[in-house]
């Protein structure tokens, strides 16, 4: 389902060049729940942004369901991000002046889902991540970090993507809520056959995944 | 929650800044609207001036004006020549004669000498012979009448060889022979009851009588009076707006020429030029064609040309100011949107990352700019409501003063009440009257400016604002999401 071949990402900072991702190759079957582990600054977020088409690899190919996204034009990339990918940012990146519900509705708006259906599904998703009804209408910048993280997860699920890329999805959650999110992701992978790749430091989460990768010095190895 | 409500929400996100932007926009847009009003008001003024001045030239025998001066009468041949001059669209000859009261004449003819004065030298002379009429003048001779007529009377008297105590006389009546329903200066004759002349034949018995003259002689439409030996019928009563002209009559030109034995003679030609810009060139051409020694060609508009051109420059200045304020409004929106987009780079990155198309992002910022512009326009309209009246007064009323001053001598020299009525502009006074009252602003602008202009201006502002919002937002949306997500 996901096939990554010899991906390199080079950054030029001043006179030095850094290669946080330096020849990464791996494949994931549909419905796999996988984790990437690695030290801070090892390039995990960088790799994820390449897979989510937020950034372009310096070289190498990322193929999702036979489509090489490294070669897609801008318009097709928009559709890819909207329909195929659910991205959970390490910093959540909610739109601060929109409510939790409105944030979750956004990807569906871009996909052309009717308003009534949007708000209905958004409410369902927020309930799934256990955000209480009274929080649905609250502006994102008035929510706690953990709440924002759950809204970000709900938003990533909005358009039923086939690949979910989540950067530290449990980083700000208590154990109990973390367990809930892990269970939710597992269920999505195993019952709905969604492919899920998470970046995590959380051992509880890592232990629940089907496959575990480690990123170090630009290379990815499987445990 | 769609892109529209999101944009409206965003427009109010930073309330202090949005408020400031709306105020600045309001000033610029208000100024633009006020300038538009000023531009249109001045334009209307120029048009009314042009219309009231007309494209007319008056040809008189050299050294003669109306009943004064001397020289040889114009002829039908002169009219034909004038018509052949370039840019001349029509030539209309008239013959003015002065008719003495027949009763007074018969009284005075009994007195030797004085009769000749009334008949020959006449009051002011005119061209060749005058005639008599049964009408009595509605104007008392007064000091001026006594002086004017006693002078010629004295001349007549001395020719007659004796001075006698003259009986009270009535001053002669001006009769103008016309071949269309226009005055000697080309203005339409304003008939207040009855109808215009229709029979312009030499044996016509139709006549138009001035209001005061009709009252003095108890004439109504259908009444009769005599000119020389012919009985004329009043077809209409006209109001020229002043006592001198209302003490006159209009007769068919051919009948006037026949009755006063001045066949083929004309006292003045009214020449209509195709365009007001060609008036002075045609004036020179006419003088050359008819001979400077034979005719005087005068332009009613010569002095007003400068007034019109100075008003014209006010018009173009206000147009430039209108455009400049619009551009200013557009620049304000552009700069503010550049700021707003910079501030929300990260948000644009998020929107792109979760699947927003560049178009969606562009639309969102354009709508946000529209909200600011619409609010600015509403406040600006109120600003304009209060500022357009003083601005228009300052621009036009001040200019009207100088125009009137410039027009004054022209009116005298031009020898016509021709633009008396139109001057000071009925239309303009009405327009200005309507300016008072802020609530009427939109109505006033739309009527005086026209919906097309208003819509054009609104579309102009919106287009500038749209471009101002599109450029920065699309430039930002074009880059990869990660670059804007990471921020500076
Ligand atoms: N735009 C950039 N320009 C230059 N260097 C960058 C850029 N983005 C990331 N880096 C560098 O690449 C390396 C990997 O960063 P990345 O954010 O991928 O780490 P990470 O594994 O996600 O770390 P963490 O676990 O702390 O989130 C870091 O050394 C970082 O400084
Ligand atoms: Mg990271």
TrEMBL record, chain A:
MF annotations from Gene Ontology: ATP binding
Pfam families (UniProt xref): ABC_tran (PF00005)
Residues annotated as domain ABC transporter: 2-223
Keywords assigned by UniProt, alphabetized: ATP-binding, Nucleotide-binding, Transport
InterPro entries reported for this sequence: AAA+_ATPase (IPR003593), ABC_transporter-like_ATP-bd (IPR003439), ABC_transporter-like_CS (IPR017871), MacB-like_ATP-bd (IPR017911), P-loop_NTPase (IPR027417)
Assigned protein family: Belongs to the ABC transporter superfamily.
Protein name as catalogued: ABC transporter ATP-binding protein
Organism listed in the record: Arthrobacter silviterrae
UniProtKB/TrEMBL annotation, chain B:
Topological relation to the membrane, as annotated: Multi-pass membrane protein
Residue ranges annotated for the ABC3 transporter permease C-terminal domain, each copy included: 320-479
One Pfam family from the record: MacB_PCD
Key words, A-Z: Cell membrane, Membrane, Transmembrane, Transmembrane helix
Cell compartment(s), UniProt: Cell membrane
Highest taxon in the source lineage: Bacteria
Domain MacB-like periplasmic core: 159-288
Annotated region (Disordered), positions in chain: 105-167
InterPro entries (UniProt xref): ABC3_permease_C, MacB_PCD, Macrolide_Exporter_MacB
Spans through the membrane: 319-341, 361-386, 454-477
Record bears the keyword Heme: no
Biased composition (Gly residues): 114-129
Keyword Transmembrane helix (UniProt): yes
Family: Belongs to the ABC-4 integral membrane protein family.
Protein name, entry field: FtsX-like permease family protein
Protein's organism: Arthrobacter silviterrae
């Amino acid at each position: 389902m996901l096939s990554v071949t010899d991906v390199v990402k080079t950054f030029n900072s001043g006179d030095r060049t850094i290669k946080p991702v330096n020849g990464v190759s791996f494949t994931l079957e549909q419905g796999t729940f996988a984790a990437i582990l690695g030290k801070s600054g090892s390039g995990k977020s960088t790799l994820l942004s390449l897979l989510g088409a937020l950034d372009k690899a310096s070289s190498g190919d990322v193929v999702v369901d036979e489509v090489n996204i490294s070669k897609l034009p801008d318009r097709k990339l928009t559709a890819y991000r909207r329909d195929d990918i659910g991205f959970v940012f390490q910093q959540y990146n909610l739109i601060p002046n929109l409510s939790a519900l409105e944030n979750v509705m956004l990807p569906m708006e871009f996909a052309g889902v009717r308003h009534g259906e949007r708000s209905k599904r958004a409410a369902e998703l927020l309930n799934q991540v256990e955000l209480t009804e009274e929080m649905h209408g609250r502006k994102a910048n008035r929510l706690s970090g953990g709440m924002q993280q759950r809204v970000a997860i709900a938003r990533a699920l909005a358009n039923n993507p086939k690949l979910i890329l989540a950067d530290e999805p449990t980083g700000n959650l208590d154990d109990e809520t973390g367990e809930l999110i892990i269970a939710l992701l597992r269920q999505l992978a195993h019952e709905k056959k969604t492919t899920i790749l998470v970046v995590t430091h959380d051992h509880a989460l890592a232990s629940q995944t089907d496959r575990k990768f480690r990123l170090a010095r630009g290379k990815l190895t499987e445990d | 929650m769609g892109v529209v409500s999101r944009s409206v929400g965003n427009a109010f996100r930073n309330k202090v800044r949005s408020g400031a932007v709306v105020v600045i926009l309001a000033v610029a847009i208000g100024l633009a609207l006020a300038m538009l009003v000023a531009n249109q008001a001045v334009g209307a003024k120029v048009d009314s001036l042009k219309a009231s001045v007309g494209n007319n030239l008056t040809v008189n025998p050299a050294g003669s004006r109306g009943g004064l001066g001397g020289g040889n009468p114009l002829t039908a041949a002169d009219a034909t020549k004038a018509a052949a001059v370039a840019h001349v669209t029509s030539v209309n000859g008239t013959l003015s004669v002065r008719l003495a009261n027949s009763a007074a004449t018969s009284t005075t003819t009994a007195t030797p000498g004085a009769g000749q004065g009334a008949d020959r030298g006449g009051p002011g002379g005119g061209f060749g012979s005058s005639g008599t009429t049964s009408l009595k003048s509605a104007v008392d001779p007064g000091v001026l009448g006594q002086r004017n007529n006693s002078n010629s009377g004295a001349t007549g008297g001395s020719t007659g060889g004796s001075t006698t105590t003259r009986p009270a006389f009535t001053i002669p009546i001006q009769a103008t022979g016309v071949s269309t329903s226009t005055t000697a200066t080309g203005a339409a004759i304003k008939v207040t009851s009855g109808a215009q002349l229709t029979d312009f034949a030499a044996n016509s018995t139709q006549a138009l009588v001035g209001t005061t003259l009709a009252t003095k002689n108890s004439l109504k439409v259908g009444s009769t009076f005599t000119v020389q030996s012919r009985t004329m019928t009043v077809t209409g009563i006209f109001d020229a707006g002043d006592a001198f002209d209302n003490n006159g009559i209009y007769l068919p030109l051919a009948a006037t020429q026949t009755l006063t034995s001045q066949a083929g003679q004309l006292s003045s030609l009214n020449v209509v030029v195709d365009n007001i810009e060609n008036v002075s060139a045609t004036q020179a051409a006419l003088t050359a064609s008819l001979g400077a020694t034979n005719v005087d060609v005068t332009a009613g508009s010569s002095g007003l040309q400068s007034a019109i051109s100075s008003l014209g420059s006010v018009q173009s200045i206000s147009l430039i100011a209108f455009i400049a304020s619009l551009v200013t409004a557009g620049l304000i929106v552009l700069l503010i949107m550049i700021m707003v987009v910079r501030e929300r780079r990260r948000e644009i990155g998020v929107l792109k990352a979760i699947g927003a198309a560049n178009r969606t992002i562009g639309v969102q910022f354009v709508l946000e700019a529209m909200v600011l512009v619409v609010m600015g326009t509403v406040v600006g309209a109120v600003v304009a409501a209060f500022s357009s009246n003083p601005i228009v007064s300052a621009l036009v009323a001040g200019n009207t003063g100088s125009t009137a001053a410039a027009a004054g001598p022209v009116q005298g020299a031009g020898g016509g009440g021709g633009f008396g009525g139109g001057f000071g502009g009925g239309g303009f006074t009405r327009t200005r009257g309507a300016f008072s009252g802020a609530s009427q602003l939109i109505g006033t602008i739309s009527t005086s400016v026209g919906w097309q202009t208003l819509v054009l201006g609104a579309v102009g502002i919106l287009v500038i604002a749209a471009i101002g919002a599109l450029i920065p937002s699309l430039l930002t949306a074009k880059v990869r999401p990660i670059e804007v997500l990471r921020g500076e």
